[in-house]
Sequence to fold (333 residues):
Amino acid sequence: MSQVNSTNKALVLEQEDKKTIAEVRQLAASDLPEGDVLVNIDYSSLNYKDALAVTGAGKIVHQFPMVPGIDLAGTVAESASPDYKVGDAVVLTGWSVGERFWGGYAQQMRVQSKWLVPLDKGLSSKQAMTIGTAGLTSMLCVMRLQESGLKPKQGPVLVTGATGGVGSLVVALLAKNGFEVVAVSGKADSVDYLKQLGASEVLPRSEFEEKVRPLDKSRWAGAVDTVGGDILAKVLSQMNYDGRVATVGLAASFSLNTTVMPFILRGVDLLGVDSVMIPYERRVQAWARLARELPQEIMDQVSEEVGLEALPAYAQNMVEGKIKGRVLVNPNI
Fold:
């Protein structure tokens, strides 16, 4: 039986004089976009891309009005798809939702069934969004490193941007898989937090903002970089022979000013990680591993729950680097 709400609270973005305006509104069912599945949204989350969209600090949104939120979890309220029935628990990440298509910052959203993945039975909606796009991306980074042949016995793995949503969960997942993890953070008060997640050592970001040489002293068997720019170039220069670097972020810069020397003299692999357009089968594999490998107590340590009204302020704080860990979005409070 259909469960369409008579009212549907949502955060809606408009653009006026090239300025992004974020406002909580009530939407009618007729306001929602086309799609073959309607989802009752239990939770979404605040990612860096969401923060750029909500504040207008980045050119994330392709058309207005837009309901942002690049991920969501909940239950099917209405379905014209043979793959899902009313009451099924589902999760959605990627596919340009929250950028080109309306996203998760609403109580209900109509979406394409091909974007959905059944929620793993080991996870609740709240756990799934505490993990969210950030956790899915983190798992994909770990999978890329492991599939490239990296093993714990080869040496320490460096994680940049380690207090962020992706970085913090990468630290926890790598530690769970037996790796020695060295975290990098610009937040002086983050040492205890990162060690609780599993880091054996925490280094200041300033150490990786020094002038980059083509090759530096070998230090790392593997790395996950979430920031890009000169920090990634510095990490590449410090990789051990046959080292692997999974790169997934551009919070510092999308530019990479480096040389070929780490690649041709030390055989370093640079592994790109995408979490937007990955195929269904790999999504299911990653979610299953997250359900098994990310302890709930770790997820509780890295999450904070807010409603739609608080999102603009939280988004601004995230853009300014003032957020630690994950921000969980509950559209029903």
In short: The mean pLDDT is 92. The two ends are 25 Å apart (CA to CA).
